[in-house]
Amino acid sequence: MTLSSTEIMALAPDASSAKSAQGLVKLAQWSALAYDEKTKSTARLVVKKVVDDLMKKLDEPMRSAVTGALDKSQRNMRPKHSEIDWNKTIKTNLKHYQEEYKTIIPQTLYGYGRKIRKPQREVILCIDQSGSMANSVVYSSIFGAVMASLPSVATRLVVFDTAVVDLTDKLSDPVDVLFGVQLGGGTDINKALSYCQSQIREPKNTIMVLISDLYESGVEAGLFKRAQEMVESGVQLITLLALSDEARPSYDKDLANKLAYLGVPSFACSPDLFPILMACAIKREDINQWAATQGIITTRGQNQ
Question: What residue ranges define each of the domains in the chain, with the CATH number in brackets?
């Protein structure tokens, strides 16, 4: 169905709210059906304004959480002056305060890791683009863009329904990501995991976040097998049933339980908590334990 320019732009008021993620993605989709370039351009400006507003809110928390976690994961005990973690060094050496000199003479120096040129972590965001996941698509594109701008993180963004599309080359602009999404269709998680698995270079340094309600229309046994292979190879696999501010979403509880049996936690996460979640994953902390401290309910594992 081809929409007129007027019909497409009528979507703009609904999409102009950051809360209307589905309207935002649909506007990006449907503007491609407009006949004239002016309508397409105007639609893009509407989408860009909403994305820019979200970026202002989410960029700094994500950037600070990830870079801080990477620094702390690379601590060294013989730091150069520029690498010293002064807060930790002072706190640990308070017992060495010298009254005579009115100062602390540290016995042990604590430092952040030395800067490494190659990425320290590989992050794959694998996003279900079925209609119910619109909010997750919007937030994932923004968080993905922030992480992609950090040289210490190699970020890949993949969306899927029954087909798999790699949008990593569009991560420099989350608006381009949204214009590349096609909401709706079936869900072949097995195919998506197969593709993502083929892109992993260093399993032990890879964090893969599968964002899906887990309603699989593909081969569930294949999905489970690939998830197991990734976990056994050292990949840190996390399932987010939703990345949004919505209430606990509908999801396939049976499949979530089977993944939990492998040690893959499944839960919904708000955009405000996502940066902290990624920081915990980077530091290789227990995700289930972290979720419990946040009052988040994760699935309980059971054998398949």
Answer: 5-47 (no CATH), 59-68+118-293 (3.40.50.410), 78-115 (no CATH)
